[in-house]
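Two entries, shown back to back:
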Amino acid sequence: MTAQLSKEKQTLLLFVVGLLAWLVPGAGHFVLKEKKRSLIIFTTIVITFCIGIYIGSIGVINLYGATPWYVIGAQIMNSPVVLALGRLNTGGAYPVYGRPNEIGQIYTSTAGLLNLLCIVNAVYLAHLRCTQPARG
């Protein structure tokens, strides 16, 4: 950042960067003008999530029958799209059993946890840019 931001503006920037990074994987880095990193993050997380859906079907996203750590900690961290997909699976409309279910859950969980790491990284980069003095 070229000038020091006030405390309120810093907090707002950190919140916006974190929210955007959650809504669309890589968007937080994109806002920070890290375009290559943003593209890599988006591609990696979306492909990992899609592989999990492909292997286990949409049935691996079970917002009501799964353990809380899995739903909140892993799948919801992907993006709000998971909530929409979870609503489609309400009532067990797409049952999946056995190994495909387990493997699909592993892939979708991994994508969510990767996105969580990227959200934290984006917020940290934004914080560093707010607090470092401008170079001139």
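entry 2 starts here
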Amino acid sequence: MKLQRLLSLVRQAVDDYTLIDDQDHIAVGVSGGKDSLALLYVLHELQRFYPKHFTLHAFTVDLGFGIQDFSGIKAFCKGFQVPLTIIPTEIGKIVFETRKESNPCSLCAKMRKGALNLEAKAAGCNKIAYAHHKDDVIETMLLSLMFEGRFYTFPPKTFLDRTELTVIRPLMYVSEADVIGFKNKYNLPVCKNPCPADGHTKREYVKNLTSLLNKENPGIKERLFHAVISGNIEGWNSGNIGMAGTSEEVADKTCRSETSVKMQRDQTGAEEQLSESHNCHENDRESKNKKEEF
């Protein structure tokens, strides 16, 4: 996937849901996985020509395992002249040794989110960009449907009233296959995820199920994503996006005028945990998607 195409998809998402405003100071959560590195790359490039001025600050949460190498992330951010803050924590020890959680992802996500929000607020950021892509949107919808009995997925933009930070998801129109292609083409310095629970989750189960369904029924991912856009989920109904749900359709509309979506939502703890569960497993997906690489 070429940078120009990734920029067109991200620009469309930003315009459709007014994800970026003038003078925004955006924190970018960088785990070292392909998704977060691609997000930082494309936002940095978007700065060059986007009519609204915004600044970036990268944040990496150190889970405290003591084995993660951050040199690649440091060099990546330095090359873009984006400030990087590495947040030291003992989340890994708390989750796996003190609490000995049998299902650690929820607690880990909540603690990482709290650490990131605190540092982002202290740095003067008003928004946090997460690297959730189209596949994450679909998988979270299926998780909610299958295990909670409700039709829900995280919205493109979420206001966190307790911290007065706004979470944005600029990669929402980008498929994971496209992210993999971009990673390969631009040699992103992906870091291995040290988490012991990596790849052994309900999300991974749903991810594999979705891949199987799409293999047996080509195009099902796009139809599921369209169901999200048109399914009356709060935060998704802009009333002016129409059928522009697929990557191809979005890429063809890079010159269309800006639209706006006015959202004010108080996010519950359960919804926040759903929106965070992606980052904990981002790096494990590398090996599981090699067959989709370009």
